[in-house]
Amino acid sequence: MSFLRFAARRVAEMAATLLAASFVVFGAMYLAPGSPASFLLSGRSASPEALAAINAQYHLDDPFFVRYLSWLGDIVQGDFGRSITYRTDVSRLLADRLPTTLLLVLMALVVVAVLGLVLGWIAAVRGGRTDSAVLVGTTLAVGTPSFVAAVLLQGLFAVNLGWFPSSGSGEGFLDRVWHLTLPAIALALYLIGMLARVTRSAMTDALDSEHVTVARSRGVPERQVIRRHVFRNSLGTVLTTGGLIVSTLLVCTILVETAFSIGGVGQLLELSTTTKDFPTVQAISLIIVALFMAVNLIVDLVLPLVDPRITLGTRSSSA
């Protein structure tokens, strides 16, 4: 199968899955108790005429499939609807908050990639006490939820030592990076441990492989053996966790943004869910699903280039 055909098939599969996900995202909100009208009324009684006006304004009295098709058509055109809570376009809310969340996720992803790969590499190559120390450290990291890490880091480095801000997202790029450093570390801690363990396991298996033994017997320098024959052959296993890492970052950012009072999409999702702001929750949920699927698509396309042993379509067909 050619690369272009494989890429086209995966994009088509992604579009079909995203369509099914949009139906689930749209329908799930209407299964929850209560309604947007009850929030808008704030517990006050309303005349049938006022309630009918609210339902008509937000199309709450239209049949379900009519609402879904209308919503889907607007989404395709980039219109996510109007926020019930903030009384403004959801697109504007996302435009104001999405850059902060994306920067936070990107910073956390860099921390995860660097520390996770380095710790896994060191543990596999050195072994012995170093390996044991890395295993203990990663066990503690994996066992620490993001919100617990957020509270601990906030208390130590923000409140007690005053090295970093305890809340907010800052203004300007450098100030924003400074404000998001602790949240990024809290967000990344669990995934550092997970990636380090995956990297260590993959490299340990590669070290025991036959081609590594042959390379060493031919006098290939050890650094070159580790870099070309061990680490490179482990990248396939490491990359397959990419989708899981990104999805975990996107989900856990809700807790971290709330803990640090960061005005990002995660905190917006938490507030919108509480107030049953249907358009905002649906838009954010669909964006998270789309980002997760896009990452998996990129991983599927990159894997055969990184590891020639993986043929096009092997991973997707086995999954």
User: What top-tier CATH class of the largest domain fits best?
Assistant: Mainly Alpha
Derived from helix and strand composition plus strand pairing, the structural class reads mainly alpha
Rg computed from alpha carbons, rounded to a whole number of angstroms? 24 Å
Total helices: the number is 14
CATH architecture of the largest domain: Orthogonal Bundle
What gross morphology would you assign?
Answer: globular
Topology pattern, helix = H, strand = E: HHHHHHHHHHHHHH
Secondary structure blueprint with pairings:
Blueprint: H1 3-29, H2 36-41, H3 48-57, H4 64-76, H5 90-126, H6 128-142, H7 146-160, H8 173-207, H9 210-217, H10 222-239, H11 242-259, H12 265-274, H13 278-306, H14 314-318
Describe the overall structure.
It is found in: Cell membrane. Belongs to the binding-protein-dependent transport system permease family. This protein starts with a helix and ends with a helix. The longest helix is centred in the middle third of the chain and has 37 residues, at 90-126. With 319 residues, it is mainly alpha-helical. Helix 1 runs antiparallel to helix 13. The protein contains 14 helices and no strands. Helices cover 77% and strands 0% of the residues. It is globular, with a radius of gyration of 24 Å. It folds into two domains: 22-76, no CATH class; 97-318, MetI-like fold (Orthogonal Bundle), CATH 1.10.3720.
